[in-house]
Design a protein that fits this description.
The chain is an alpha/beta fold. The chain has helices spanning about 10-25, 50-60, 80-95, 110-120, 130-140, 155-160, 185-195, 210-220, 230-240, 250-255, 270-275, and strands at about 30-35, 45-50, 65-70, 70-75, 100-105, 125-130, 150, 175, 200-205, 225, 240-245, 260-265. Strands 3, 4, 5, 6 and 7 form a 5-stranded parallel β-sheet that branches. The longest helix is centred in the N-terminal third of the chain and has 17 residues, at about 10-25.
């Protein structure tokens, strides 16, 4: 259960990494994804994440319930979203299923109600987190000595790509990965940088909701706008890039893996923690 089926590159790659890890342990395992109605993944079963009946049936049949990928327990993105994932975790607990948060993220929770529920539920959940700020946020909810910090699961996917030596390149691009709340005049600064070093700015959205801001800003400096939808596309782009100026966590991660220098433009503590650790 995660934010799957919405074409967010980072979340989709995390789903692949989690399922790959499951199959590495048990090739006969069956993985079922929670997804929007009508969304299908090749070789996987999907249930409608908004259907109470399908959710109940799915959790009842499962051996392990995994809450996986990204900062799912967060009020910053959406309180409804935090309630949804907490409810799914609680439902699996009521059905006495083994539960796991897999290399996930947690933000500081202000809601007393959410804290109350999480404090009781997380005691019996196996927890691995992908960053130190998430561990700090978890300890604000309850002391949890058994929680561990692991790297983002997407590193598992890129492992086979980065074993090969990086060939000599002549960078042509500056890749810019914005969030939909990016400053409106950011492209002006980027345009000056590109003119100085004869580079082209490629505004790459890692999720469809970021595409409008990428299109608007690229038009200001005659740049290019594109949607990154898979790891192959990301590899191709970053290997031809001099820099990746990013507000997005997974754009920084992929850029670094594919030999492109990442530059953080985000105030997010999780993104800054990733930069420090790399």
């Amino acid at each position: 259960c995660g934010y799957l089926g919405y074409d967010n590159l980072g979340d989709e790659l995390m789903a692949q990494a989690i399922s790959s890890s499951v199959f590495a342990r048990d090739k006969s395992a069956r993985v079922v994804f929670f997804a929007p109605k009508g969304k299908k993944y090749e070789n996987f079963d999907c249930i409608n994440r908004h259907s109470p009946l399908q959710i109940l049936k799915s959790i009842k049949k499962c051996d392990v319930f995994i809450l996986g990928g990204g900062t799912l327990i967060s009020e910053e993105t959406s309180k409804r979203s935090a309630l949804y994932y907490t409810a799914m975790l609680t439902l699996a607990g009521i059905m006495k299923k083994r539960r796991m948060i897999w290399s996930g993220g947690i933000d500081r929770i202000k809601s007393k109600f959410l804290k109350f529920i999480l404090k009781r539920q997380l005691k019996s959940v196996k927890i691995s987190l992908r960053d130190t700020p998430s561990l700090d946020a978890l300890w604000q909810i309850l002391p949890c000595p058994s929680a561990q910090i692991h790297s983002d699961p997407v590193f598992l996917l890129v492992d086979s790509y980065i074993r090969a030596p990086i060939t000599k390149r002549s960078p042509k691009y500056v890749v810019v990965c914005l969030k939909n709340d990016a400053p409106k005049d950011l492209a002006i600064m980027i345009g000056e940088l590109c003119r100085k070093y004869s580079l082209t700015a490629v505004f790459a959205a890692t999720t469809p909701k970021d595409m409008p801001v990428c299109e608007t800003q690229s038009a200001l400096i005659n740049g290019k706008a594109m949607l990154l939808s898979d790891i192959e596309g990301a590899k191709s782009l970053f290997e031809s890039a001099a820099l990746c100026l990013s507000m997005r966590y997974h754009a920084i991660l992929l850029a670094a893996c594919f030999g492109c220098v990442p530059v953080c433009m985000s105030p997010s503590e999780k993104v800054l923690a990733l930069m420090r650790e790399m």
